[in-house]
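Input structure tokens:
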């Protein structure tokens, strides 16, 4: 068992170092995360230290998946995943890019929809190419599965954000200032009629006026916008993925985002190495 785990982590390390460009990006981002973590330790912000540790763990997950399932992530896909993790955790959370740049969260959710669709397409594509499969999935079905997979991940993430806000009193579902609301709760007759209030200039909480210049929505707009842009990213990749699967165009940009099974040569070398270590 111990030898098996050692072989596995050696395979993970080999995956990390296999592609020069990916390894340089991984090393550079990892160095930046460690620098940020040291700075947060000196500042006494241990919550951000924990976030940095999580980021370091997340950065090796692509290599762990490759070694565990014997699949090859194209270099562009792996680089995009690494940059996405760094942009979301270090820049977004610790450097407060979510607050400083209004569209930072929107960009990342769009990219998340795109990447999750790529992952969903890859899963069914790898399964579809297995010799032991009793049936063959059509490109259209695979594209639909990729889209549904991406949207499901997006929904689960919004569940997580709501849970953190509800139970831990965070603000992952960011507030939005609106100037028009429509509410049946405000109907004095309780006849389920919507009462529309327009041109809202201010709002008060516990008798104290808030300087927000409008009504403060606590999460609904943020959640729905996240799902909308996730939908856009998912639909873009699913359509492009459909044509890639149908034509198998080797020059397609999608090819650089779809994992492939290990080659027979690489699989054979890995099996020989594991056999030698057992002996």
């Amino acid at each position: 068992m111990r030898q098996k785990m050692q072989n596995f982590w050696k395979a993970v390390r080999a995956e990390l170092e296999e592609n020069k460009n990916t390894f340089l990006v991984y090393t550079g981002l990892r160095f930046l995360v460690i620098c940020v973590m040291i700075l947060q330790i000196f500042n006494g912000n241990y919550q951000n230290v924990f976030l940095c540790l999580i980021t370091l763990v997340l950065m090796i997950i692509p290599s762990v998946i490759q070694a565990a399932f014997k699949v090859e992530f194209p270099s562009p896909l792996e680089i995009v995943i690494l940059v996405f993790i760094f942009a979301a955790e270090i820049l977004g959370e610790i450097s407060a890019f979510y607050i400083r740049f209004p569209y930072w969260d929107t960009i990342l959710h769009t990219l998340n929809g795109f990447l999750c669709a790529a992952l969903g397409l890859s899963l069914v594509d790898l399964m579809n190419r297995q010799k032991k499969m009793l049936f063959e999935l059509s490109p259209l079905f695979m594209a639909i599965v990729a889209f549904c997979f991406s949207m499901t991940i997006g929904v689960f993430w919004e569940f997580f954000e709501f849970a953190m806000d509800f139970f831990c009193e965070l603000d992952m579902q960011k507030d939005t200032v609106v100037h028009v609301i429509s509410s049946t709760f405000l109907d004095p007759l309780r006849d389920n009629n919507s009462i529309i209030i327009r041109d809202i200039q201010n709002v008060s909480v516990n008798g104290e006026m808030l300087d927000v210049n409008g009504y403060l929505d606590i999460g609904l707009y943020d959640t729905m916008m996240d799902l909308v842009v996730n939908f856009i990213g998912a639909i873009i990749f699913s359509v492009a993925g459909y044509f890639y699967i149908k034509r198998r165009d080797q020059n397609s940009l999608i090819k650089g985002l779809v994992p492939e099974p290990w080659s027979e040569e690489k699989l054979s070398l890995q099996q020989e190495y594991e056999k030698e270590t057992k002996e």
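The chain has nine helices and eight strands. Residues 184 and 274 are 67 Å apart (CA to CA).
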